[in-house]
Structure formats: C-alpha cells, structure tokens
Write a structure and sequence with these properties.
This protein is α/β, with parallel strands linked by helices and 387 residues long. The protein folds into three domains: 113 residues, NAD(P)-binding Rossmann-like Domain (Rossmann fold), CATH 3.40.50.720; 137 residues, 3-Layer(aba) Sandwich (Rossmann fold), CATH 3.40.50.720; 76 residues, ACT domain (Alpha-Beta Plaits), CATH 3.30.70.260. It has 14 helices and 16 strands. Strands 8-7-6-9-10-11-12 form a seven-stranded parallel sheet, with helices on both faces. Strands 2-1-3-4-5 form a five-stranded parallel sheet. α6 links the parallel β6 and β7. α3 crosses α6. It starts with a strand and ends with a strand. The protein binds 1,4-dihydronicotinamide adenine dinucleotide and 2-oxo-3-(phosphonooxy)propanoic acid. 1,4-dihydronicotinamide adenine dinucleotide binds next to α3 and α6.
Length: 387
C-alpha cells in the first residue's frame, strides 16, 4: 500500500485514478506527495518519501537538490496548465492597455446616482482611454509551453511578436507561428517591445532578470506582464520605473506587499492555472506519472531524475536504484547482483546532470540481503523493490 499526502487541493479527477494499493493520508511518513504551490523548503523530507508530484509547471517551491540527494524523484506536468495561463495573459495584455480596472472601479462609484448614471458615464469615460494592442509589438521572453501559446494568439490579434529563448525546445520551435520574429538577445527584444511578457522559470539565472539596466533598454511607457514568478523582476527598480512613468503598467499574477503599494500595478492573485480545465489536466497528469513511478519504476517528466520507461514488469522481479551520475555505478550494481547469482533479464541506465537511475528486471526473487548490498554501494541514494 502506497501512502500519498496532498499539500494542496488536487482535483478529484486525478485523485480518483488511484487504485486500491494507494491510500490518501495526513501523516508524515508517506511514500508520495502531491502538491501545487505549497512551499516545501522548510519541510523535513521523511525517509519513506519516494516521489513528489507537482500538479503544475513551476518547481521553485520544492527543494530539488535535497530531493535528489535523498533519491526522491520530483515530477511536474509540463504544458498541462499552459492554456489557462495563456488566456489570463491575453486578459492581462488588455488590462495593461485600456484602464479597464480603473474604469470598473469608477463605474461602481456611480451606484445610486439614478437617471444621472448614463450622463456621468459619458462625461467620465475619457479618463480611462487607452491604446489598442493591434499593430503594437509584444516581446515574449521564454518560448516554452506558455510563451508559445501567448505569442501565437498575440499574433492572431494583430500584434507584431518578438520571441527570445536561447534554450527553445524543438517542440516549441515547431509549434511557434512562422511569423514570430526571433530576437538574438534580450536587449534587442526589450528595445523594440511596447509590451513585454515573461514566461521563464524562476531559477538562479533568471532571478531579477528585469532590473534597472534592462528597464533602461526598454521603450518609454512600456507595459510589463509577469505571469511567471515575482522574483523575476527586481521590485525596487520596477517601483522607480513605474513612479517615473518609464514603465506605464505592470500586471502581475504574483502580488506581494511591495507591488500592492506601487502605482500603475495590476495585481491578480495567482489565478493563471486556476481553471477547472487546468486543475484537472495537472492533477490527472501528476497522478498518472506518480503511479507509473510507484507501480513500475518508470519516470516521465521528472525535473531531477532522467526519463526511463521499461513498461510493466513481466520478469520475476524489478529493482530501481537512484544514484549519483559517477563512473562504475553500472558495473558495481550488476556485480552486486551477479555475486548473489541473480541473472538480469533487462535493464536501463539513464542520467540527468548529477543524477542517474538504473532499473533492472531480474529472474529471481529480490531479497533484503540483495537490497542491502546495493544500498551499500557508494553513490547509491535509494533502492526500491518494485516487484
Ligand atoms: N501564473 C501561473 O499560474 C503559472 C505560472 N507559471 C510560470 O510560468 C513559467 C513557464 O511555464 P511553462 O511555459 O509551462 O514552462 P516551460 O518549461 O515550458 O517554458 C519555459 C521556457 O523558458 C525558457 N528559458 C529558460 N531560461 C531562459 C532565459 N534565461 N531566457 C529566456 N528563456 C529562458 C526555456 O527554454 C523554456 O522554453 C513556469 O516556470 C512558472 O514559473 C506556470 C504555470 C502557471
Ligand atoms: O504551475 C505553476 O507554475 C503555477 O504557478 C500554478 O500554480 P498553482 O498550481 O495554481 O498553485
């Protein structure tokens, strides 16, 4: 029986996929965790933990290195909420252009003005005028699952679209409309864009990427959209640029005390993926990936361990070894099995950066003795008997 704990509300459509060998529990020593944006950094990881499933894209709320060192495989669900975010980004583009938020707030103040309302509306509306997006230039930073969708829709709305992503995947390149222009540098994109939208993960290399120096490269009155993570923008520099009018509007899905106090900021309470469709897509994908790992040892969409698929085990036994990506691991593992007279029926060894994974089907029953031999190999961080 696998014990699974949820740290956020996960859509029932996903949780209901779990079969009888799974139990949802609220205790510490679990085999798997499912979560959305819950911050796990201060949490102690139980020794029982094998996998973490992030029903969503961003994994900056999960201590990835700590998980890797304990052999905990962290999954996310690439693309599963991208359409939900794309739709809100398009709303954000319009909110950044026309003063819809200010206008709606003002219209609400006209309550109880009776027959005067239509006259007051006509007299007051010019305070809330704003430009159209058609014909303007949108700069999309990060052309992954979300960035590509945003770029393509913006193009179909009549915008000129520039994209910047030095690490673009082949799939994203295929999916991008041919009329999206490629920027060779961030500065080139920033110099031409009337609107800038951020669709990169928050990692060391992207932290504070929109700072004073980059804002200086931008056009006057630029409008910036951040539906990725607060930490991508240097907030003091942004506050200065908003106060001076260099940046006309900042729309963020990640408000905090600082941004809430800045003028010309539109704060949305992290609603990008909060649609029933995205919530279900993410939950279903996260649960399926978690179950395939727990039941079969297969890895799909992990951010810290390599992809690996040996299907369902038809041999007598299957053993999974999470280990460091260093020399002699395969020979040490296979020697340990051979020394116990265990014959290997099938095996895969894959690596991803510093970490590797070996999945082995064997023709005998796996005993505790064998597991202990494998655990004793230097560099091995977890051994799991799948069957
Ligand atoms: N507001 C919300 O509710 C949501 C926010 N997000 C945020 O959006 C981010 C992007 O999500 P996806 O598009 O699904 O991820 P993704 O992984 O498909 O795309 C990210 C893209 O950023 C690119 N990239 C990485 N470093 C870069 C750099 N320095 N400069 C330019 N491009 C760079 C990558 O090559 C990749 O193509 C997530 O990491 C998350 O932080 C994601 C989903 C929901
Ligand atoms: O998937 C992501 O990166 C998101 O930001 C969505 O977060 P959420 O699942 O809505 O808490």
């Amino acid at each position: 029986m696998f014990k699974i704990k949820t740290l956020n509300k996960i859509a029932a459509e996903g949780l209901n996929l779990m079969e009888d060998n799974y139990q949802l529990v609220d205790e510490e020593n679990v085999d798997g965790i499912l979560l959305r944006s819950y911050k796990m950094h201060d949490m102690d990881l139980p020794d029982t933990l094998d996998a973490v499933g992030r029903a969503g894209a961003g994994v900056n709320n999960i201590p990835i290195d700590k998980c890797s060192e304990k052999g905990v495989v962290v999954f996310n669900t690439p693309g599963a909420n991208a359409n939900g975010v794309k739709e809100l980004v398009i709303a954000g583009l319009l909110l950044a252009s026309r003063d819809i938020v200010g206008a709606v707030k003002w219209a609400d103040t006209l309550c109880e003005k009776g027959d005067e309302v239509p006259k007051m509306v006509e007299a007051g509306k010019s305070n809330f005028a704003g430009p159209e997006i058609k014909g303007k230039t949108l700069g999309v930073i990060g052309l992954g699952a979300i960035g590509v969708l945003v770029a393509n829709v913006a193009k179909s709305l009549g915008m000129k679209v520039l994209g910047y992503d030095p690490f673009i995947s082949i799939d994203s390149a295929w999916n991008l409309s041919r009329s999206i222009r490629k920027s060779d540098s961030l500065e080139d994109l920033l110099a031409q864009a009337d609107y800038v939208t951020l669709h990169v993960p928050l990692i060391d290399a992207t932290k504070g990427m929109i700072n004073k120096e980059k804002i200086e490269c931008m056009k006057d009155q630029v409008r910036i959209l951040n539906f990725s993570r607060a930490g991508l923008c240097h907030e003091d520099d942004l506050a200065e640029a908003l106060a001076s009018g260099k940046v006309a509007r900042y729309v963020t899905d990640f408000p905090n005390e600082k941004t809430l106090h800045m003028s010309n900021v539109i704060c949305i309470p992290h609603l990008g993926a909060s649609t029933p469709e995205s919530e279900v897509n993410c939950a279903v994908m996260a649960v399926r990936q978690l179950m395939d790992y727990m039941d079969n040892g297969n890895i799909t969409n992990s951010v810290n361990y390599p992809a690996c698929d040996m299907g369902v085990c038809h041999a007598t036994g299957r053993i999974a070894v999470n280990h460091k990506n260093v020399p002699y691991m395969v020979s040490n593992i296979t020697k340990a099995l051979a020394d116990k007279n265990i014959n290997i029926a099938d095996m895969i060894n894959k690596s991803k950066k510093d970490w590797a994974y070996t999945l082995i089907d064997v023709e005998s029953t796996i005993t505790d003795d064998i597991v202990n031999e494998l655990k004793a190999i230097e560099g091995v961080v977890k051994v799991r008997v799948i069957k």
